[in-house]
Amino acid sequence: MTWFLEHAGAVGQLAVQHAYLAGLPLLIGLLLALPLGWLAQRGGWWRPALLTGTGLLYTIPSLALFVLIPLVLGTKILDPVNVLVAMTIYTIALLVRSVADGLASVPAETVAAATAMGYGGLRRLLAVDLPLAIPVIAAGLRVAAVSNVSIVSVASLIGVAQLGSLLTDGYQRFYGEELLVGIVCCVLLALAFDLVIVVLSRLLTPWTRAGRPSAAPAHTAAGAAS
Questions:
Q1: Which of 41-45, 164-168, 218-222 has the lowest mean pLDDT?
Q2: Chain centre distance of CA 180
Q3: How far apart are CA 132 and CA 126, in angstroms?
Q4: pTM for the whole thing?
Q5: Are 159 and 77 in contact (CB under 8 A)?
Q6: Under DSSP, is residue 178 helix (H, G, I), strand (E, B) or coil?
Q7: Cβ neighbours of 127 (radius 10 Å)
Q8: d(CA 108, CA 182)
Q9: Which of 41, 90, 136, 225 could form a disulfide with 100 if both were Cys (CB 3.0 to 4.6 A apart)?
Q10: Within 10 A of 122 (CB to CB), how many other CB atoms are there?
C-alpha cells in the first residue's frame, strides 16, 4: 500500500493510457464490425469467409502483431498507433460474429411487420434490426472490452507504457506490491469498461425492462401464504 500511495499519480497516468489503448479500438472495431456483421448475416458465399476469416485474426499472437504492425505501417516500434491497430483487429475478430448473430436474432415476425409498415433497407436496419440486436452485440462487446484490457498489457513487453508496465517492472525488480497494483488496476479497469457497456445497453434498450412482474408486497405474500 505504501508503494501505491507514493506512486498514485504515475499509476493514474498509466491507467488513463491503458484505458485509451483499450477503449478507442473498441469503438473503432465496433464501427467496422457493424457493416461486416450485417454483410455476414445477409448470407451468401462471403458469410463463411467473413466469420471464419475475422475469427482467425484473434489467433494471431498479440506480441507478434505488435512487432509486425510497425513493419506494415512504417511506424516506430514504440508508437501507440501499433497497439491501437492491433487492438482494433482483435475487436473486429470478436465482434463480427456477435453483430451477425444479433441481427439474426431479430424475430421474423418483427421484420415482416416493419416491412409491412413501409420500413425497408437501411431504414429498417437502423430503426428496427440494430436496436433489437443490441443485447447480443453488447454481450460480444463486453467480451471484447475485457479482452482488450488484458491484451494491451502485453504491449509493455515492447516498451509501450500502460498498466502492464507495472507488471514488467515489478517482475524485473521482484517487487510484489507493484505487481499486485498492476493486476488490481487492470481488473478494476476491465470491470469499469464492463459496467459502462451494461449501463449503455440498458439505456438503449428500455423495452427489455418493460413488462417485468413487480415483486409482490410483503404483506400480500404473507397473506397468501396464510
A1: 218-222
A2: 24
A3: 10
A4: 0.86
A5: yes
A6: helix
A7: 12
A8: 47
A9: 41
A10: 8
Q: Are 103 and 90 in contact (CB under 8 A)?
A: no
Measured CA to CA, the distance from residue 24 to residue 12 in angstroms comes to 18
- Residue appearing with cell numbers 473503432: 28
Quote the cell numbers at residue 74: 512504417
The H or E element spanning position 90 is helix 80-104
Q: Give 149's Cβ-side CA count (13 Å radius).
A: 21
Cα–Cα distance between 169 and 185 in angstroms, integer?
A: 15
| Angle formed by the axes of helices 8-41 and 46-57, nearest 10° | 160
- Give me the mean pLDDT over the 100-124 stretch: 89
- Burial degree of 121 (CB within 10 A; 0-12, 13-18, 19+): exposed
Winning range, highest mean pLDDT, from 106-110, 122-126, 133-137: 133-137
Contact 160, 171 (CB under 8 A): no
Interatomic CA distance for residues 152 and 24, integer angstroms: 12
**Separation in Å, CA 211 to CA 84, 102, 127, 201, 208:** 42, 22, 22, 18, 8
Residue with cell 404473507: 222
Q: 163 in helix, strand or coil?
A: coil
Q: Are 30 and 91 in contact (CB under 8 A)?
A: yes
| Residue 112 near residue 156 (C-beta atoms within 8 A) | no
In angstroms, the CA 91 to CA 95 distance is: 6
> DSSP class of residue 44?
S
In this structure, what DSSP letter does residue 162 have? S
Length of the chain: 226
